[in-house]
Amino acid sequence: MEWIIIMLYGFSMFIICLFSLAQLNLTWHYIRKVHDPALNHKPINLPFVTLQLPLYNEKYVIDRLLDAVTSLDYPNTHLEIQILNDSDDETVGMIDVRIDQIKNKGIDIVHLRRQNRIGFKAGALQHGLTLAKGEFIAIFDADFIPKIDFLKKVIPYFKDEKTAMVQTRWGHLNENFNLLTKMQAFGLNAHFTVEQTGRRKAKSFINFNGTAGIWRKESILDVGGWHHDTLTEDLDLSYRAQLNGWKFEYLESVESPAELPITLQAVKSQQFRWNKGTAETIRKNISKVIQSDLALNHKTRAALHLLNSSVFLFIFIAALLSVPLVFIKNEYPHLKTIFDFGSVFLVGFVNIGLFYWFAVRASQKHPLTYFCIYFPLYLTFSLSLSLHNSLALLEGFLNIKTDFIRTPKFGVQKNTNDWKGNSYIQHKISLLNFMEGLCMLYFAWGLGLDVNFQHYSFLPFHAMLTLGFGYLFFNAIKNSLRNVA
What we know:
Spore Coat Polysaccharide Biosynthesis Protein SpsA, Chain A, alpha/beta, globular
């Protein structure tokens, strides 16, 4: 049994290390040159653009979204706005009030309502696509506020007729709202600097992030349109298009501000959808990647990109096995050489640290201080989500179908804004919350064993796991009690 635990732990750490090396490779590509692709040509003539706004119950943010999209610096003669509204609440009436006012300004705007929500967001986008007049399709979720010059900045990058999509960097309207938003920003900033730019520099597959980007309509039609057989329709379409020879661009210099979720429930809902949808997309597309005629290095990066979220499964397995390993380390001192050799996996921690360091350095005025504070906090939070995200991945891999659960929006940017009366939030204690509480106790026990046996190599790991799962558990209890009160 001891050897089985050691081998399973070693294999899990090897996989984690492998993915960290992939992140290090992207970091290397990123630091070679961080600038956006140069435009060595005159801007193209302004084409007709359809701006799609997929909505479902967005009464707290719909007004500011409409204010932003109707203020874009783009000729009204070349712009159509589609409100793809599947809402069943006050959002419908709020849009009806605004729509005539907007039309009176000479803006081509349509309020599209479906009889059902078949396909959820993907279904709404596909429905709008069949009616779209534009050569290009710009997409913004309800929590975004596109800048006035967005279209004029991005459209010129479609000069190459094989360019299917241009993605822009997400900004954060409420990064400093609370600790949760700060940790989300820490992780997202790394994705939208080092990772996406690194992939572009390596000429590897990148992905549309579901919003704040523009598609060439022809490319979507070419690969069969939007599919709703996964919860990450954006990732699925990205891979189908690039496997069919279309090119993608990423613009780090063009920021599209958005609101970050401000409650743990909202973050976990978003994370569950992203991770389950990624697993569904893996099932659908990984064999196509392997069988493609891509060069081996691009094929490897594409496969690791798709499988990246799967690392949560191995993190949770390694975490569970780390506690019995403390016993094994204490009872079998002759295995010291094996445990010493295991320290090689610290290279994974170093790789991840470098990945986030270069992201922090690119976005912060005082990078060292910021990194030293938020990197440990972000790791702790990520470790605490390993169980939650592993369950999402398993549902996706096992093809267990569930509805598309939207991330609730709050329409807040300052911590003085009132949000606790948000009607989209329903705090309920769940079995998962109790499992997270048990994990807190389990890793606290492991922490005690580290001290008792004076084996301190696992101590930081167990401390972060205890704190992280404790945060999830007590947050859920606090919010459920607030509902009762």
